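tokens incoming
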């Protein structure tokens, strides 16, 4: 369990294409077919987001095209870890803190903001009626009510791309955007666009879930492409640890080059 987080206690249930269920792992689970697994192995040599044995809660959505169930959120350490730095930063504002979160999910992040004192108030914007119906009542029973009258949580229906606060004067100490199912370099442009919508309304940061991993992945794809072009088939003759080391060094060079460019601009 990641410090400052609580295991999800939202009741199991289903609504439309969405469901909340518990699942138990009796051995460590390594997500073999994660879209980023290959590239992460190039960079780190280690599989990431392993899940320790235990009982967990997950939020799933049936994909309308494939008919397959996609896990959108769970209360595993791997998921909590990716919110931990934001939660720590936001909780420093204490009872004066007012936080805006896009993406309710299982409410894992929202609970970590509010439990044991935490921040004064959280506004959450959630696109899906089903997710609001599944998770909302449980969290509102714990933390809801009217602001100024004991209520510390408000759940708004809306799309992060277009949502406008009910009161145009609303401002937040921190904003957190977590509306994506997977970590991907393809979300970078949307993150930039969404951040710019809320920068003027936040006294602190406007952060996006897994943004650093996305940036790293973007650089790693480029690094692997460059190395493939330079070495051709010789790349595949190289022992795997050497390939990984080469890709890692090139990825770091690309990232530090981008950071230096950012500073000059
Ligand atoms: C990964 S989950 C969020 C998990 C959440 N942070 C938690 O701690 O449980 C993503 C959520 O974002 C919602 N979502 C997706 N696109 C959205 C959008 N454009 N605007 C608002 N919410 C969105 C999904 O319905 C889903 O509930």
């Amino acid at each position: 369990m990641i410090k400052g987080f609580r295991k999800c206690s939202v009741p199991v249930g289903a609504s439309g294409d969405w469901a909340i269920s518990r699942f138990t792992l009796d051995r460590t689970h390594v997500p073999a077919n994660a879209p980023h697994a290959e590239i992460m192995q190039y960079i780190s040599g280690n599989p990431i987001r392993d899940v320790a044995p235990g009982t967990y809660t997950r939020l799933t959505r049936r994909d309308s095209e494939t008919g397959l169930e996609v896990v959108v959120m769970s209360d595993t350490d791997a998921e909590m870890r990716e919110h931990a730095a934001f939660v720590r930063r936001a909780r420093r504002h204490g009872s004066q803190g007012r936080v805006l979160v896009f993406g309710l999910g299982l409410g894992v992040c929202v609970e970590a903001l509010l439990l044991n004192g935490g921040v004064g108030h959280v506004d959450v914007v959630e696109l899906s009626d089903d997710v609001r119906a599944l998770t909302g009542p449980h969290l509102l029973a714990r933390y809801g009510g009217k602001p100024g009258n004991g209520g510390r949580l408000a759940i708004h229906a809306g799309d992060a791309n277009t949502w406008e606060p009910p009161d145009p004067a609303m401002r937040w100490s921190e904003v957190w955007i977590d509306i994506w199912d997977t970590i991907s370099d393809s979300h970078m442009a949307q993150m930039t666009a969404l951040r710019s919508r809320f920068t003027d309304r936040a006294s602190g940061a406007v952060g996006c879930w897994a943004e650093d991993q996305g940036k790293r992945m973007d650089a790693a794809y480029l690094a692997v492409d460059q190395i493939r072009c330079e070495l051709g088939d010789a790349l595949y003759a190289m022992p795997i640890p050497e390939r990984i080391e080469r890709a890692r060094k090139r990825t770091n060079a690309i990232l530090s080059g981008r950071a230096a460019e950012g500073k000059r601009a």
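note: The mean pLDDT is 88.
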